[in-house]
Specification:
Elements: H1 5-19, H2 23-36, H3 47-56, H4 63-82, H5 109-122, H6 127-136, H7 140-144, E1 151-152, E2 157-160, E3 169-172, H8 175-186, H9 207-217, H10 225-237, H11 242-249, H12 254-258, H13 265-273, H14 278-307
Antiparallel strand pairs: 1-2, 2-3
Helix pairs in contact: 1-2, 1-4, 5-9, 6-8, 6-10
């Protein structure tokens, strides 16, 4: 019998749960893919059909999200090939969408005030989650997979056992982050997981409350990941150097961090504005005058010395 896409999807989710931090997202996306392909034979899916489906979703989904669907499809067929259940991976022949990585959305103080007002009125039990994100820059998967054994209150540090880059990293905790974690700890009943769903299981996504809060606050084009952008932009605006910001963000390369350098235009303006500072201009003019006077004096002295030389008379 031919293997159905649904069978491959089940095995892929088992793999994702065991090996990927983005399992919660994979689960949601796979449900959409199963609605589309379902019980059809996996090998009946062509690159053209995948491209057509992605195009049909381009009005509602951003290029980055479409690329995640493509990547999940590719993983599904790749695992199927490794297990000898399919012979090809049609998703590999589907083009990647161009993502706008240069545009970075971050939270202004005014927007934060609006968002906090909504959260305090309707989702007060989740404010600590917001505070932890804003003060650590943790990725969503890193934050919502936290367990209490990763939190060291004495050293004011939390450990991410496996980051997006597959490495362990250590995140320092400021006063606001410590307070957020303490308040979370006080509301938990000796559970291993820092964040829990209403049924007591580990909570891997804030979507069920955060998206509604963002909409109620009137924020446009703002997602949970924008809180991480906000953390980075505020570091830069506070004068933190790029190398330190790179370490705190857990970026593998400095190029990822450099994207945030332009987010402090007032600091760049302050730098060039110094050229117009009255005292600085006067000092520069004074230095120029002194330098010119010195050159004139040296030139006059040299001319005088030259005139004093007795030249031999040529017959």
């Amino acid at each position: 019998p031919k293997v159905t896409f649904a069978q491959l999807a089940k095995e892929t989710l088992e793999y994702s749960k065991a090996h990927k931090l983005s399992f919660a997202d994979d689960k949601v996306r796979m449900a959409k893919l199963k609605e589309w392909i379902g019980q059809r034979p996996a090998e009946s899916v062509s690159p053209q059909q995948i491209e057509h489906w992605l195009l049909s979703k381009s009005e509602e989904l951003k290029p980055a999200t479409l690329n995640r669907y493509r990547a999940l499809l590719s993983l599904t067929f790749r695992l199927g090939m490794q297990n000898g259940k399919v012979s090809a991976n049609p998703a590999r022949l589907v083009r990647q969408r161009k993502e706008d990585n240069g545009r970075i959305r971050f939270l202004s103080p005014e927007e934060e005030a609006k968002l906090r007002t909504v959260i305090r009125n309707d989702y007060l039990q989740h404010e600590a989650e917001l505070d932890l994100a804003l003060n650590t820059g943790l990725r969503r998967s890193e934050q919502y997979n936290l367990t209490w054994d990763c939190v060291d209150f004495e050293r004011r540090q939390l450990t991410v056992p496996r980051s997006k880059n597959g490495e362990t990293r250590h995140v320092p905790l400021n006063d606001a982050a410590i307070y957020a974690l303490r308040s979370l700890q006080a509301s938990r009943d000796d559970t291993a997981n820092v964040f829990l769903a209403s049924d007591g299981t580990r909570l891997c996504s804030p979507r069920f409350w955060f998206d509604a809060a963002v909409e109620a606050a009137g924020l446009k084009d703002f997602t949970w990941h924008c809180l991480r952008h906000t953390f980075a932009s505020r570091l830069i605006m506070a004068g933190v150097d790029l190398r330190t910001c790179q370490e705190l963000m857990g970026h593998r390369t400095i190029q990822m961090t450099v994207r945030y350098a332009h987010l402090a235009p007032q600091h760049s303006l302050a730098a060039v504005q110094r050229l117009c500072d009255t005292e600085a201009v006067q000092k520069a003019a004074s230095d120029t005058t002194t330098d010119t006077g010195l050159k004139s004096a040296l030139a006059a002295e040299s001319a005088s010395a030259f005139q004093a030389i007795e030249l031999p008379v040529v017959a």
